[in-house]
Amino acid sequence: PIGPLAQPPSREGPAHGARVRAGLARIARTFDAHRKAWIARTSADEFARARHDVTILQQATRMAASRSPLGARDRSMADNVVWILNHEPRGARIVLWAHNGHIANRLAAYRNMGSVLRGRFKAGYVNLGFVFARGSFQAMTGESKGHPEVVTVGPPPAGGAGAAFARAGLPLFVLDLRNLPRSGPVRDWFAAAHPVREIGALYDGEKEMSSRQVLPDLYDAVIFVERTTPARPPSRIVPDQPR
């Protein structure tokens, strides 16, 4: 089973992890050995998807065993994006939604997904970071007990990107950071680091949700939302249609 590996270190010890990895390697070799026969019985697309499911399981085991699980996770995310694009028609494009920390051009702590995709696709990778001023959102807190809670934050800190963008008086806009003035106060402001509020799956308080960022170094553009609202379940869920 893969489950115990999701609780590092595995409660069943390194030997258990090694057995799981060896088992997955055998499954992968079996897929590869029977590729032609299994494609003939199904289709090239079905085989490719099932084979990649094995790869994803192997990625999970590497993440569980890694000394840098977050880095291993982001590398796998980037590899999966490349895999998807390679299995689409030539010229296809992907819209990928992820936390700012995943799609940014780089992170200080580890090599993130965005840095891998930037290195692979160069200018073909266009990333848009989110900045907001105030509002509500869902996140896990110390009181969540396994379920996300609605958290509300007030006006943004003075001097931060959210406060500066809010002064434009627009509730929603996209700002292309690739076409900033080459000199002057606007260029100087964007060349400096400013606090940016960011929310992930966890909320540990105002101090933990802010980091100083030089926005043009991290993103091609930013989407600004003056007031956010928490996610709401759809009124009607449409099941995936067969491809």
Secondary structure elements and their pairing?
Layout: H1 13-33, H2 35-41, H3 44-65, H4 69-86, H5 100-103, H6 113-121, E1 128-139, E2 149-153, H7 161-166, E3 172-176, H8 185-191, E4 194-197, E5 210-213, H9 215-218, E6 221-228
Parallel strand pairs: 1-6
Antiparallel strand pairs: 1-2, 3-6, 4-5
Helix pairs in contact: 1-3, 2-3, 3-4, 4-6
* Quantity of strands, as a count: 6
Helix content: 40-55%
Secondary structural class: alpha+beta
Secondary-structure element sequence? Answer: HHHHHHEEHEHEEHE
Distance between the termini: 30 Å
What's the helix count? Answer: 9
Q: Going by CATH, what is the homologous superfamily of the domain at 127-228?
A: EreA-like (biosynthetic domain)
Low-confidence stretches: none
- Output the CATH class name of the domain at 127-228: Alpha Beta
Major beta sheet summary: 4 strands, mixed
Strand content: 15-25%
Strand order of the largest sheet: 2-1-6-3
Cα-atom radius of gyration: 22 Å
Mean pLDDT: 90
CATH architecture verdict of the domain at 127-228: 3-Layer(aba) Sandwich
Return the CATH topology of the domain at 127-228: EreA/ChaN-like  fold
* Principal-axis shape: globular
Tell me about this structure:
- The chain contains nine helices and six strands; from the N terminus they run ααααααββαβαββαβ.
- It has helices at 13-33, 35-41, 44-65, 69-86, 100-103, 113-121, 161-166, 185-191, 215-218, and strands spanning 128-139, 149-153, 172-176, 194-197, 210-213, 221-228.
- With 243 residues, the chain is of the alpha+beta class.
- Among the domains are: 3-65, no CATH class; 127-228, EreA/ChaN-like  fold.
- The longest helix has 22 residues, at 44-65.
- It is 40% helix and 16% strand.
- The strands form two sheets. A four-stranded mixed beta sheet has the order 2-1-6-3. Strands 4-5 form a two-stranded antiparallel sheet.
- The relative contact order is 0.11.
- Helix 1 (13-33) runs antiparallel to helix 3 and helix 2 (35-41) packs across helix 3 (44-65).
- The model has no long low-confidence stretch (mean pLDDT 90).
